[in-house]
Specification:
The structure holds 2 protein chains of 2 kinds. Chain A has 2 domains: 9-262, P-loop containing nucleotide triphosphate hydrolases (Rossmann fold), CATH 3.40.50; 305-369, no CATH class. Chain A is 34% helix and 20% strand. Chain A is built from 15 helices and 12 strands. In chain A, the strands form 2 sheets. Chain A has an 8-stranded mixed beta sheet, sandwiched between helices. In chain A, strands 2-1-4-5 form a 4-stranded antiparallel beta sheet, covered by helices on one side. In chain A, helix 5 (141-151) crosses helix 6 (158-171) and helix 8 runs parallel beside helix 9 (220-237). Chain B is an alpha/beta fold. Chain B has a single domain, classed as 3-Layer(aba) Sandwich (Rossmann fold), CATH 3.40.50. Chain B has helices at 46-53, 86-93, 105-108, 115-127, 131-144, 161-173, 191-207, 219-225, 243-248, 253-260, 300-304, and strands at residues 4-15, 18-30, 35-39, 61-72, 77-80, 98-101, 179-183, 211-216, 228-233, 236-242, 309-313, 316-319. Chain B has an 8-stranded mixed beta sheet, sandwiched between helices. In chain B, strands 2-1-4-5 form a 4-stranded antiparallel beta sheet, with helices on one face. The chains are: A alpha/beta, B alpha/beta. The interface between A and B is large, with 44 and 48 residues.
Chain lengths: 371, 326
């Protein structure tokens, strides 16, 4: 456990844990029952390389959005580290504010006091799912895009800022920009709104963008357009994306690597094509089997999804591997796995090259834990 | 004689700012035991079609023209839902002949009544069962959708999303209707639960040859269930035909582009297609073909005249000038 990062790594998450406390009833307080928590993110590790699109995939409630927010420090981090390499100027600014900088280039976002996050916020931006909810309906498009500049004191004069707004609108292909600047969000279509949201995230020349389901609210016919735009901007601005989605098919088209989450844990990480063509974790297998495809021959047969039961509550997490109550391979070989799956939490281990999985079915995982 | 015949249906919303032609001259038929998939993007009028079929387009909408003929085998009668008195609709059609699985199961159940009582309500009110008979039927229905008896005593907040969707399906099947309309039945669900619900719908369909109208924006879901597919764009059906034809041999440019825009899990990673522009404002739709401003093959005639439906294959119809003989 250390802050050591290889040169091409831009973000390294170590044992990231986000728990949300539940309210205790007066009876619980009197009986001195311990406080209970929603284990939204329960100790995850991953690294993101500079310039890559890293996908977090999982069902609702698996903690993928919370992970994205934790990286930006938009939720309180309960434990763990989020090591990040900011730009040189930001480092200087942070040092001047008295923030600990490791090895002269790494900052632990989890340890930065909230009030000193501001220089980092320039570099870390977010694109939200719902372009109807994420844009202030009382602001004109121009004001929406100017806001980050004002907050961070970029651009001396109004004219200078307006020039930047125009450039930003052009970069997201809202052309001519003069047409859009004075409109309100409700006068735009869903796709145009999401472009504004993308433009806003780009205003401060960020390094890393967390995109939380940026196309799931949009119609299929325009999704590809927004995805293409995001990929273009990534290329031209040398960005790194954390792309959060529930849709493995979308992930396959734009992601370099995919991490699959289940109930607050990462169960598998691999290159996008590798993960989809050769899934190792039983949960990933079920997820892939469940995705419908536009092939009318599917009509004749039932879709076999190798999983049972439902997602348990994130308050009462099953012991050991949290997937074992729903796992079919475990059920089939209960006798040999009984001392493993329901007892010990499987670590995330590199089983094949650049393919990590947290499942006791694999020898390498057992060996690494000495079990 | 088809079970349901929709002819030149027009449903308009009479808003203060003008008339929105949400469904404009839509025709299709539905045979007994057939699954019709109605696909299109948000705002294309597909949900309005669903509500019109129940004779209750949401206010300020009204059925402005056309006919919805429903053939009732038992009574040997044919009703025209588009021109029927509310009282008669309630006693003869709704829930008994045509029922609906609503979009967003989360909101389709009332939070203050037990699930069992909610399913029993139409049984008591429409079928005149006693409370006891109704409760027996409720248990039967719950088992049919793969839930156990104890669910009847629970409140909706105690159920998961998938369980709630199953309850909503059970409600729709309560009076054994001929036609079930499913409006985005799996949209709010996770993929694993969605696959389970689709399997359930398939099984129910195989067991009892019910007619289903499946409405969704997701063509992959339509492919799982539908025999026949209708593609809607801006209030009109632009292409309708057997499922295999629509997916393997689409003829309308809109259908072709829509299919290319779907990200797929298997096969080569091609560049995803998209359709530039946005659908037209339905208050003042463009003259001629409504798709021409976004169509890569637009010709002069497209912006002047509206294309007629022409048959391009067996039971396969397209409304596009590329196929019309003039």
């Amino acid at each position: 456990m250390s802050a050591h990062m290889s040169p091409d790594t831009v973000l390294k998450v170590e044992n990231l844990t986000v728990w949300f406390p539940l309210r205790r009833s007066i009876v619980d307080v009197i009986r001195r029952k311990p406080r209970r928590y929603v284990h939204a993110v329960d100790g995850i590790d991953f690294e993101i390389r500079r310039g890559e699109t890293f996908c977090l995939v999982g069902e609702s409630g698996c903690g993928k959005t919370t992970t994205g927010k934790a990286i930006l420090r938009l939720v309180d981090i309960y434990a763990g580290h989020v090591y990040y390499k900011p730009a040189k100027e930001t480092i200087a600014e942070l040092e001047a504010m008295g923030v600990d900088v490791i090895d002269g280039e790494i900052v632990d976002i989890a340890a930065v006091p909230p009030k000193k996050m501001k220089p980092l916020r320039r570099e870390l931006q977010m694109i939200y799912q719902d372009p109807f909810g994420s844009l202030n309906p009382r602001f004109k498009i121009k004001e929406i895009l100017e806001e980050p500049l004002l907050v961070h004191g970029v651009g001396e004069t109004p004219d200078e800022r307006e020039e930047q707004v125009i450039k930003a609108l052009e970069s997201v292909k809202l052309i001519p920009p003069e047409d859009f600047m004075n409109r309100f969000p409700h006068q735009l279509s869903g796709g145009q709104r999401q472009r504004v949201a993308v433009a806003r995230a780009m205003m401060l020349n960020p390094q890393l963008i967390v995109a939380d389901e940026p196309v799931s609210m949009l119609d299929v016919s325009i999704r590809a357009e927004i995805l293409e735009l995001m990929m273009e901007l990534k290329q031209s601005r040398n960005l790194t994306y954390v792309f959060i989605t529930h849709d493995l098919a979308v992930a396959r088209y734009i992601c370099d690597r995919i991490a699959v989450m289940y109930l607050g844990k990462i169960v598998e990480i691999a290159k996008a094509t590798e993960l989809i063509e050769n899934p190792l974790h039983p949960y990933t297998k079920a997820l892939i089997a469940a995705i419908p495809e536009p092939d009318p021959s599917n009509k004749a047969k039932l879709r076999e999804v190798p999983i049972k039961g439902e997602v348990p509550s994130a308050v009462l997490i099953p012991p050991g591997c949290r997937f074992h109550p729903r796992c079919l391979p475990y059920e089939a070989e209960k006798a040999s796995l009984e001392n493993l799956c329901p007892v010990h939490v499987p670590p995330l281990v590199e089983v094949e090259e650049d393919h990590y999985v947290a499942c006791w079915l694999y020898d390498k995982v057992r060996q690494s834990a000495g079990l | 004689m088809p079970l349901l015949e929709v002819k030149n249906l027009k449903t308009y919303y009479y808003t203060l700012r003008g008339v929105v032609k949400a469904v404009d001259d839509v025709s299709f038929t539905l045979e007994k035991g057939e699954v019709l998939g109605l696909a299109g993007e948000s705002g294309c009028g597909k949900s309005t079609v669903a509500w019109s079929l129940l004779g209750m387009p949401p206010s300020p909408g009204r059925i402005a023209g056309g006919h919805i003929y429903l053939h009732d085998d038992e009574a040997g009668e044919t009703y025209d839902i588009a021109n029927m008195a509310e009282e008669e609709l309630r006693s003869k059609v709704r829930w008994r002949k045509i029922s609906m699985v609503f979009q967003g199961a989360m909101n389709a159940l009332t939070p203050v009544h037990r699930v069992g009582d909610q399913i029993a309500e139409p049984l008591i009110l429409h079928a005149g069962m006693t409370k006891e008979e109704a409760m027996n039927r409720v248990v039967e229905l719950l088992n049919m959708v793969g839930l156990d008896d104890t669910i009847a005593m629970r409140y909706p907040h105690e159920l998961s999303g998938g369980q709630k969707q199953r309850v909503v399906i059970a409600m729709a099947l309560a009076l054994d209707p001929d036609i079930v309309i499913a409006d985005e039945p799996t949209t709010a669900l996770d993929v694993v639960v969605q696959a389970q619900i689709l399997n359930l719908m398939k099984e129910l369909q195989w067991k009892k040859k019910r007619s289903i109208i499946l409405i969704t924006h997701d063509l992959s879901i339509i492919a799982e269930l539908a025999d026949k597919v209708a593609i809607m764009y801006a209030g009109k059906i632009v292409e309708i035909g057997p499922s295999s034809e629509i997916f393997n041999n689409p003829q309308h440019p809109y259908t072709q582009l829509l299919l290319k825009a779907i990200p797929r899990l298997r096969g080569p990673i091609d560049k995803l297609a998209y359709i530039p522009g946005t659908p037209p404002d339905l208050m003042s739709p463009p003259p001629g073909c409504r798709f021409y401003p976004r169509c890569p093959y637009a010709m002069d005639v497209c912006m002047r005249e509206e294309p007629e439906m022409v048959e391009v294959g067996k039971d396969h119809y397209v409304a596009c000038w590329l196929h019309s003989k003039r």
